[in-house]
Amino acid sequence: MQRIRKGDEVVVTTGKDKGRRGTVIRLYPDGRVLVEGINMVRKHMKPNPATGQQGGIVDKEMPVAGSNVMPFNPVTKKGDRVGYKRLDDGRKVRFFRSTGELVDV
Questions:
Q1: Adjacency order of strands within the sheet including 64-65
Q2: Which of 2, 35, 60, 66 has its CA 20 to 30 A from that of 72?
Q3: CATH number, domain at 37?
Q4: Nearest 5 degrees, angle CA 77-CA 7-CA 66?
């Protein structure tokens, strides 16, 4: 099981976007995460007539290290650590360490 999953709402803990929230779009095998609206860069794109792509400068999201984001806890309104436990029916679920509430509902 992973601490952060696709679709989770996370808070950035370090860097230029510290304190901002976004939704995880993609997880990379090397531990990086792509978060919606976070770590935006201006990328110079070459035109590609074969695909109909126009050239120019585009704003694009770049991945951040997974250690630099924390899952957002709606109860405490800030980032929180995540733990794991098994329920009575045998399922393994994630829970917030500070409140004990389940992340996966």
A1: 64-65, 32-35, 21-27, 9-12, 69-73, 78-79
A2: 60
A3: 2.30.30.30
A4: 75
